[in-house]
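Tutorial, part two.
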Amino acid sequence: MAASLPLGLGWPKDNQLELVPNTSATFHAYVHIPFCAVRCGYCDFNTYTSKELRGVSQADFHIPLIQEVDLSKELLSSWGIPDRKLTTVFFGGGTPSMFEASQISAILESLKANFGFTDDIEITLEANPEGLDHIKLDQLKLAGVNRISLGVQSFDQQVLDVLDRVHSRDKVIAAVRLARELGFRVSVDLIYGAPGESLESWEATLRQALELAVEHVSAYSLIIEEGTAIARKISRGELADVDEDLNADKYLLTEKLLTEAGLKNYEVSNWGNPSRHNRAYWESQDWWGYGPGAHSHIAGARFWNQKHPATYAAALEKGSPAHGFEYLDPRTQLEEQLLLMLRTDSGVSSALLRELGVPNELVANAIANGLLQLAPGGKLVATLNGRLLVDGLVLDFLSKSKP
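Running the prediction step on this input gives:
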């Protein structure tokens, strides 16, 4: 089952938040398409198969999403947030490619009519390889999508079987080649650390991705979430548990092969031509998350929607799909900046660490131990070894800071 919604304040009945606009922040949209044909064994996302939808129609679900777009325009205006054009749009899920291209087009038309698009807008759609063909990709291109993020995970059929993925290696290769031929920017999502996956298998997956000349690779370590099918199999001894030492070797191999191929690491799990949408998250820009369970971040406030598609749609009809919200105090905003930006090649400033009260000796020790390095402009950036330990490093900094 998907993780529960965060704790927070109940959404106000009058839909009003007290916000101080960040006039320098860019504006972005995330659209959550919560449908999947099957639930993968490792999945803990807010997604639903046809058996879990309680009468919700996938064919009509773009309608409530468009209603929320219209609502967001009204609320942003009532909160005193200045009008800004959208810089990026990201369709995530779930499996957004399960929507018809006409549904994607209708949502984009609504976003453009309400907010406008910058001339260089990045519009990404997550897709599974088995859901793409020439006709579908042509239609998506006409709708305005210019970047495809393919959920590949592995090119090893045994690993795909362990992860309960339904596509084949050949289908991925065909989908990537077709998308590139039609002019899309292509990113592939890979997962390392599946039970039984060897270092050699992972290397073969990386080399296959590079052979396809994709311009972006996201490579994530498999996280075993409680309550998932794969967690149950591991607990019963049907599958081996994750080998963290082997995963570290896989990460180092990923860095070596991708960097040698010209795909620069710009965030712990991402290499290549950066996703401007993901950068917006890490830089704490403003974004509105549309759809069930989607999170938004506007002017120092974070809020989130009802999770189930039916509950989401019903709440929207009553005035708002939002479930709760929180105001981020200045300290929390600084902590999140450290947590997110130290994962990137931009790093963080010494001034931020001082403002958080991180002891100088901790920073000096991290540099001496080869976890951080000074970059041009005085920024502190995680080294390769630092990237392996960056989340623990941040927690250590914050636990010993002196506000």
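The longest strand covers residues 117-127. In part three we will examine how such features are distributed along the chain.
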